[in-house]
Amino acid sequence: MLEEISEGIINALRLILSGDPTVISITWRSLAVSGLATLLATLWAIPLAMIIALRSFRGKRLLKAFFNALLGIPTVVLGLILYLLFSRSGPLGLFHLLYTPLGISIGQSVLVAPIVISFGVSSIEATSSEVKDLAKTLGASDTQVSLKVAKEALGGVILSVVAAFNRAFAELGIAMMIGGNIANVTRVLTTSISLETAKGEIALSIALGIILLSIVFCLSLAVNLLRRS
Predict the structure, then answer these.
(1) 23 part of a folded domain
(2) Looking at residue 66, which CATH number applies to its domain?
(3) Is 171 a domain residue?
(4) Which of 14, 74, 89, 122 lies 20 to 30 A from 202 at CA?
(5) How do residues 35-68 score in pLDDT, each as one tens digit?
C-alpha cells in the first residue's frame, strides 16, 4: 500500500511539473468558480455583518444564531435544495443555472456567506466598543464611526473572506450536484479527485489533491504574513 502511495505521489509530481493541460484547465476553472462565489458572497455579507455588529435591533441575537447555525449545514443538503431550485421545473429554472459554472458559483456563495457574516461580526464586535467610544469622543458622525470600526477590523474581515474562499474551493457536494462534473465545462478539482479516485487513477487524484492543498495553504500563509507585516 505504501509503495502504491509513493508511486502515486511521484507520478503526481511528474504531472504537475510537466504542465499537463488537463490539470491546468481544472485548476483555473476551480479558481474562477470559487473566486466568483467568494465575491458574490462578500458583496452582501460584509455590509450585513457591519449592520449586525454595529446596530442594536430586536432579534439581533436570533439573527446571529441563525447564521452561526448555517456554518454547519451539510453541503449535500444545500446542493439538493439548490438543485430543486435550479432544475427546469424549479422556480429558478428559467435562468438555466443547472450544470453551469455560474450555477456552482451561486451555490457556493450561499454556502460561504454565513462564514463571512459570522466571522465578520465577531471581528467587528471585538474592536467596535473601544473604537466607537473614542471616535464619538472626537465628535465623529455615525458614518465616520462605522468606517473607522471597519478599518480597524479589516484584518479579521479579510480572514473571514479567505476562510470563505477556502471553503468554496474545497467544497464537493454543491459542485457535484449543481455542476454535474461535466468535462471541460463544470469539472473542478474536488469533483475531479472524486472521479479519478473512483476510476483508479491515483496519480492524477494525488496531483489534483496536492494542487488543491497547496493553493489553500499558500493563500492562508500569505494572508497571515501580510497581517503581521
Answers:
(1) no
(2) 1.10.3720.10
(3) yes
(4) 74
(5) 999 999 999 999 999 889 888 888 999 999 999 9
Which of these, 159, 166, 163, 189, lies nearest to 176 by C-alpha position?
189
Amino acid 44: pLDDT: 95
Q: Residue 63 CA to chain centroid, in angstroms?
A: 21
Number of domains in the chain: 1
What is the predicted pLDDT for the residue at 227? 67
Cβ(75)–Cβ(174) under 8 Å? yes
What local confidence, expressed as pLDDT, does residue 85 receive?
A: 96
In a domain, 208, yes or no: no
Note whether residue 173 is domain-resident. yes
Interatomic CA distance for residues 64 and 68, integer angstroms? 6
Beta-strand (E) ranges in the chain? Answer: none
Q: Which residues of the chain have pLDDT under 50?
A: none
Taking the C-alpha atoms of residue 97 and residue 129, their distance in angstroms, rounded to an integer, is: 43
Q: In which domain, by residue range, is 52 found?
A: 32-199
- The residue with cell 450585513 is 48
Given a contact cutoff of 8 angstroms between Cβ atoms, the answer to whether 35 and 110 are in contact is: no
Residue 101 has what pLDDT?
96
CA gap 224, 80 in Å, rounded: 35
